[in-house]
Amino acid sequence: MSTVTIDKSGPTRKVKYGSMSRDRTWALRWSYFFLTLFAIFSLVPPLYMLITSLKSSAEISAATNPWWVYHPTLSNYAELLTSNQFLRFFWNSAWVSIIVVTITMLISVPAAFALARMKFWGSATLATGVFLTYLIPDSLLFIPLFKMFAVIGDWTGVQLINRWYVLLFIYPTLTVPFCTWIMIGYFASIPKELDEAAIIDGASWFQTLTRIFIPVALPGLIAATIFAFTVSWAQFLYPLVFTTSTDQLVLPVGIITTLIKGDVFNWGQIMTGALLGAAPPLIIYAFLMDYYIAGLTAGATKG
Amino acid sequence: MVDVAFQSNRTAAAQAGRRRTGLRNALRRKSMAAFLMTLPLILLIAILVLYPAIYSLHLATLNKAMTKFVGLGNFEFLFKRETFWLVVKQSCIFAISAVVFKALIGFIVAHFVHNVPANKQRKWRGMLLVPWVIPPAMSTLAWLWLFDPSYSAFNYTLSFFGIGPIPWTGDAMWARFSVILVNVWYGAPFFMIMYLAALKSVPEQLYEAAAIDGANWWQRIWYVTLPMMRNIIAITTLFSLIVTFANFDIVRILTAGGPLDHTHIFATWAFRVGIEGSDIPLGASVSLFMVPILAVAAIFILRDITKRGNES
């Protein structure tokens, strides 16, 4: 609301130019007004997480003003951060995401390079195929994948279901097509002269990729990395299907299955957990927003 | 002697040959290198995406214990169930209304952000994109708490305006409204950022020319902005339609399909039937119903992309 300021400096002179600048001033005021409304709409749930996380359970059930904290306490944070379970979920999530990001980059960067630069038999079809793969949602594949991994377990005796590392096989199906697609776009925008010069100087294809393309396309690489991380951090359906034991769960599933016991909702802790689970993507986004947006608009992400 | 001469002769010939076919060799090496570079990608897609997709077709034709081939029996069974038709109806209501509202809000907000002086845009963009950054499973928990029946923050606030307690997730109509609201909240920033990028690419001269011709605000949007943004609008909407249609976490956490299966969409019902009810073939059949919609949307998107590729 404070942003709806009345511009006192300009108008007296600007009015001389006629109605257009007056229109613009009003358009600007209306813009700020509605943007404030939309910003409130966007920020209510995260703020409410924060407010609730600072309340004790007594204050939550006292049904006082839900939008205000009368006796702020950090007890929810202390309890969660010292409980083994929660830390376990957090580390599971962190490990899964970090390894998946690494796998994704190792697979998608060379593939995107080959698809963007080295025209070969079927490369156009494969590029389209990558794009189509990216459109296949997790909610279509979770049942056959579950059955597949169960069958593998029966045949080989290697138990994959209900192990956190099964997610390392599955998450790349979400991240790889999409990061490859982004990277194809970035690589394609690099001037051809650069790699032609490198090839003439005797560089191999691999050297061209590591010495020229990766440094030049670094912004795209960062965007793809951020995306792969956010996608694996936020996944909910696959871990819900593939893991059940408490020590194998990742954060989103862990919070929902352990903090909600039947009909008993310990809201203080749930909100604290949700906020801590939302923190890593939010922190990355706060520092690397421009890369995130660049990736979003370049790759036309899921939404 | 003869042997040596023959050998040296052969190497010489090979050398000459290599020089002559150097180009062809380089090309062969190139396609070999390209093949090796894309091999992990091909394997990943083939084993973990294409195979399961086909496998689910096979699964859908088995009986519950997965011992017998029942042909289209599962589908026959689904068509006779009232819940299935509820799910079809709800999936369509959910996806279409959520996408329409996301697109509208995204368009309006993008316009406002575009109006703001360039140096202040970053701050607004940052705040408005927050819903998109938070993992949906986490933010949906916050919404669930905001909708809580007894301590609901929304009902507390509404009571000041004399609006009675609303059964947000308890009543079928309100539960539908709630899941759509949360989905719109989560997905609108995506549209906002895509439209904002599109708006920035519209040349300023077009607006100036329109203004000189006396076009009003509405005419400028209708005759300048919309035609220039048509491609982005179409592609973003189709994308979002696919993802919204296949949504899982929001509905699962907020209502788990209830009350009385009224908010189930394909993904959540497939999970309920296939994993929780351990009838994997039936679950696979349910999720297969998403394929026609996805395919149609994908065809349109592809057409758009190849068209764009031809233009550039």
UniProtKB/TrEMBL annotation, chain A:
GO biological process: transmembrane transport
Subcellular compartments: Cell membrane
Domain ABC transmembrane type-1: 90-288
Record's bilayer topology term: Multi-pass membrane protein
Keywords for this protein: Cell membrane, Membrane, Transmembrane, Transmembrane helix, Transport
Predominant location category: membrane
Transmembrane recorded as keyword: yes
Record-linked CDD domains: TM_PBP2
Ranges that cross the membrane: 30-51, 94-116, 128-152, 164-188, 209-230, 272-294
GO cellular component, one term: plasma membrane
InterPro entries reported in the protein's UniProt record: BP-dep_ABC_trans_perm, MetI-like, MetI-like_sf
Membership in a protein family: Belongs to the binding-protein-dependent transport system permease family.
Protein name: Carbohydrate ABC transporter permease
TrEMBL record, chain B:
Keyword NADP included in the entry's annotation: no
One of the protein's GO biological processes: transmembrane transport
Membrane topology classification: Multi-pass membrane protein
InterPro entries documented for this protein: MetI-like, MetI-like_sf
Official protein name in the record: Sugar ABC transporter permease
Family assignment from sequence similarity: Belongs to the binding-protein-dependent transport system permease family.
Sequence intervals crossing the membrane: 33-54, 93-114, 126-146, 174-197, 232-254, 280-302
Matching PANTHER family: BLR7065 PROTEIN (PTHR43005), SPERMIDINE_PUTRESCINE TRANSPORT SYSTEM PERMEASE PROTEIN (PTHR43005:SF1)
Organism: Bradyrhizobium septentrionale
Keywords: Cell membrane, Membrane, Transmembrane, Transmembrane helix, Transport
Localization, UniProt: Cell membrane
One cellular component (GO) term of this entry: plasma membrane
Residue ranges occupied by any ABC transmembrane type-1 domain in the UniProt entry: 88-303
Keyword flag Lyase: no
